[in-house]
Amino acid sequence: MSKLILSLEDGTRKEYLLDRERIRIGRKSGNDIQLTDAAVSGEHALIITILNDSFLEDLASTNGTKVNGKPVKKCFLQQEDIIEIGKFKLAYVRGDAPVRDFEKTVMLRPKAPPAMLPAAVATPNDTPLPRSAQAGRAMAAMRLLTGPGTGRELDLVKNLTTLGKPGVQVAMITRKPQGFFVAHVDGDRSPLLNGQAIGFQSHPLQNHDILELAGIRMEFFLR
User: Which residues touch 100 (CB under 8 Å, ≥6 apart)?
Assistant: First the structure.
């Protein structure tokens, strides 16, 4: 199970399991991870975890959120990324992979920042899977049914694909050995799957499911 590791100034460490789909971080006591510092907003950031993948979103905080020293609004977390919130630094550990030495990790030169959410509908995100990982796995795509791109098909060949318009409505599709899953990650209104709001849970996608997102209807299908 993925987790965050917080190293405190007195040398102690705290570990927070990402054992729920949504983990909120902030100064207020109602957060799943409470960080008591004036530089931390009441509700500062959100981590969405689907299976072994985690996605970080800054909740319009006053002082912002950084990953590996770079300001981010939304990003896909990678092994040993360092999340900076106020004076706190949290190391992201994917699954059961160990962090070799957290104190050394936070001093390393920052890695390249993870990809940000796209600005338009049906634009993929993240790094393509290696060809060896793609071999033998079911291929799938989204076909736009309405809007100016009607008829366009987007192959879902990546670990993570984000669809929608940031600030309006964004969904995330993750590709796993078990299949494809969709989750709502941005916007006040939940996307519709076959006419039903998907809410705050991830949902497996079935052949010919209809997703309505940011005013666009699209069909999920297996090739």
Answer: none
> What is the residue whose two structure tokens read 């796993």?
176
Question: E strand or H helix at 132, and its extent?
Answer: helix 131-134
If one counts every other C-beta atom within 10 angstroms of the C-beta of residue 17, the result is 11
Give me the sheet containing 210-213, strands edge to edge: 153-155, 140-144, 216-222, 210-213, 192-193, 196-197
pLDDT tens-digit series, residues 124-145: 344 334 333 344 455 899 999 9
Q: pTM for the full model? A: 0.53
In angstroms, the CA 52 to CA 202 distance is 13
Q: What is the pLDDT of residue 97?
A: 55
Specify the DSSP class assigned to residue 133. Answer: H
Which are the contacts of 135, defined by CB distance < 8 A and separation ≥ 6?
none
DSSP class of 128: B
